[in-house]
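cron nightly-structures :: item 1 of 1
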Amino acid sequence: MNDARDASHRCGDEDTSFEQLSTQQMLAVNLWCDRYEKLWAKSERPTLAEFVQSVELEDVHAFRALALELITMDVHYKRLAGDSIRLNDFVDQFPTVDEQAIRDILLPKTTTTGSSQTASGLAEENELRKGQQIGDYVIEERIGRGGMGSVYRAHHQLMGRIVAIKALTLRTSQDPSSLLRFEREIKSVAKMSHPNVVTAYDARLQDGSLYLVTEWIQGRDLGEIVLEQGPLPVEEALDVAIQAAKGLDYAHSIGYIHRDVKPSNLVRDGNGNVKLLDLGLAKLLEQRDANTGSTPLTADHQVVGTAEYLSPEQARTPNVVDVRTDIYSLGCTMMFLLTGKPPFVGESPIDTLLEHINAQPPMLCSEMAGQALPDGLSALVHSMLSKSVDDRPASMQTVLKRLVQIRSLTSSDFAAPQAGWNLRDGWLPWVAVAAMILAAIGFAIGRGNFGSRSSDINESSSSSNLSDGLLFNGRTSYAEVQDFDVELDGPAMIEVIATPQTGPLPCNLVTWGGDDLFVLFAGFDQKWGVASLNDGESHLEVSRDSYEIGRKYLLAAKRKGDQLELWVDGSQVPTRRGEYELVSSRRSLCFGGLPDGLLPRHQGTRFFAGIIHQVRISKGEELQPAARVHNILAVESSTVGMFDLSEGEGAEAKSTVNGFRVQLIDTQWEREFQTQKQP
């Protein structure tokens, strides 16, 4: 017996359900269940007792959940084979599993088939009405419909959170093994968490339909954007591809293949964040069809996946694919983003699939894209579209690294023009030449993040004790200035010295609230941002480069009318405009998060994880961000609040200007934390 079984025998009658497991535990349970099922499928008539001896699961809770899954499967196949089934056999073998749970498996409750089941055994989609409830979610409206089912906008009855609900029809047989396997899969999908993957909040089987509840993304899919606006500029297409590759690399790392990567499954929000839709759904649909022996082709002759973006091997044998099928589909998607059309379009879906299998892909070139392409991009896309999986990049991680390299090596050629530049006056080519000369003589050129910027902030802290600061935990911590009455009625600036740590995103470092709103924040993909509500109009800018975890930054956000600027370590940085609907709040000034009720619930609590060392708030016409660390502590005529959070104790901090007092909620002084860590 392994350690998990030994522990299981010592732990008493505590039970563990599958949905309580972590993602990795779920994947491990799925793996062993699949192995046992394959033994039955090969007609090897395995013995459960012998199979359990081969199981390697160190966690007792995962082993107990696995036991219930295996018992259910064993009972199902023994019934099909006409073997005898004895309750005591299972009870004796698994003494720590609740006997009633085993009885329920052996004597399942009788189920009735409602009118939603057709004579063929396929469940028709249940039309959801406005006001109808699915669990704790209230339907508001249907926003789309496709071959897999419908998508609805809904809200959580208690929390008020807006969500999207996908209603998918099922073809699962009613035997416990099929339903249990299906439920394991949807619960695994709901455990996924990554900035570039749409978060699944809940998944359930109800009335013959699968309902997958995900976060609501206020944005548009890349298919719509390209069809409406035309092919994307190179830099924009690279950014989309990099974010998509990050999400896919995460999925592959935990054992999932998307199987349906395409522009319409990439949605971009107002901040420029790209997220993968429908991760895991192709596998669920594949499992659905496998339960009834259905072929991959649906009534309208479309494979699980979309013909224009389907790999040759998925078109031939959809059940036998690996991560390289997603690499192929991402290559097709990149071709569409850059040229406005996928590599293959036949007269019918079947013709398109045959072209994927037999025809050579077109070579991406500047003429096709209608713009100059950076070195290496065409070769990368062509390799991703190779017919043979062995000729493609071996992993999404390889694709991601190459995309980042292409973007960083060509960032000077394809960077957005800064204020005062003109693409027609010859500045950008000269900048590119200068960058090449600097690189040739050994100077450091930025590679797509702020870590390579030279600054005194991480080299010297003689002007103040920057090793100290206020710790925010990313969950409940925030600081609020008491009786803050400074109106945001003109040009203003927020300056912060902060050290970000790993935590939830997006999050606010400083929120200056009132009829107008001014925010310095950290967004998805670890990018700094500034947002402003000015006379009812929302404005938002996000940095193009990402920040590094654990590094100190000198940050500044400026607003003047509808113009926003973002400064990092004393230099203004290029940004891209985003879209986000801001709302007014009571007059306030908060650091590291927000008190409950300050902003609408659907906008979140915005808690920051990390250390904030200093904050300076300024108003006036001529505002210039601090170029060095010690300058932020200087009190100038424009300064309305100066908060040195490297000094203080207890649950309150103070401002050296205007005497503001700061209430601290669930924060901790850095020096106290370090003292506690010492033995």
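cron nightly-structures :: done
The chain has a mean pLDDT of 76.
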